[in-house]
């Protein structure tokens, strides 16, 4: 449904209209201060601890969900402009190539899911690699029917917003993925990885975001499989309408990363 909704909008708007329509209501913010990171952690706590019980909320008395990987991650917040609400968050975990200690979450928790004949995770320890992780969308921007058990939306919402705003909500998950993709490109990483539901990978592939399977699905907060992407795969397959939004989000993030 996600891919269908976005593709329909791509067909009815030109690239600039599509980008303008989205950015009228949302902005992407690099959580580069402790205060902003704590806002991201609160969104994660609400979703992963309170709503889904993926994590034990008693371990987070300050109502902020965080872990060891946050210290070497870039965090994003998607902000709803008119309300000032944090719509969602995602992080890009980026271990240092020179560190013998830093690793990706999936290296620690799901390394066994990778098929070494397809993608040898251990052989990439000396490569610039990263992982898309902890994507979470506030319950105010997710459907209550059919979306209660997932941390992000793929279709719509059931709260009171204008019709124009409602048309943009299918983009929430997409824009967060595009935001970390922009960091991936701007920081010149070689590989990005993710643990994702195979059906979500199929949906985003309709947008030209071609995650490649790297192993079999396992139980990992639901049935998820490892996927990877390179810069060439990302940039060479993106649909034109989505490309416009990607370039807009990259433009928003570049000065925030100090790369002007």
TrEMBL record:
Origin species, per record, is: Motiliproteus coralliicola
Signal peptide range equals none
Enumerate the UniProt keywords alphabetically: Acyltransferase, Transferase
InterPro entries the record matches: Acyl_CoA_acyltransferase, PEP-CTERM/exosrtase_acylTfrase
Q: Name one GO molecular function term.
A: acyltransferase activity
In Pfam terms, one family for this protein is: Acetyltransf_5
Name this protein carries in UniProt: PEP-CTERM/exosortase system-associated acyltransferase
